[in-house]
Design brief:
Layout (H helix, E strand, L loop, with lengths): L4 H8 L34 H13 L1
Length: 60
């Protein structure tokens, strides 16, 4: 698939120049595999909070 010329052409053709002007076949935020594509800091949670969340989830 890497040698498919129609794929390259499709990437060069833009359908928008607004906020949605991203390639059609790219993932949004962290919905795809691989490294995250944002620079947000990891969420930090203490052990007590993690235990309360786990207890609440398992009780459902």
């Amino acid at each position: 698939m890497a040698d498919d010329p129609s794929r390259d052409t499709r990437r060069e053709t833009k359908i928008s120049n607004g906020p949605n002007a991203r390639p059609r076949d790219e993932t949004i935020a962290q919905t795809g595999p691989g490294l995250p594509n944002d620079s947000s800091a990891p969420v930090e949670i203490d052990e007590e909070e993690a235990r309360r969340i786990e207890d609440r989830i398992r009780a459902s």
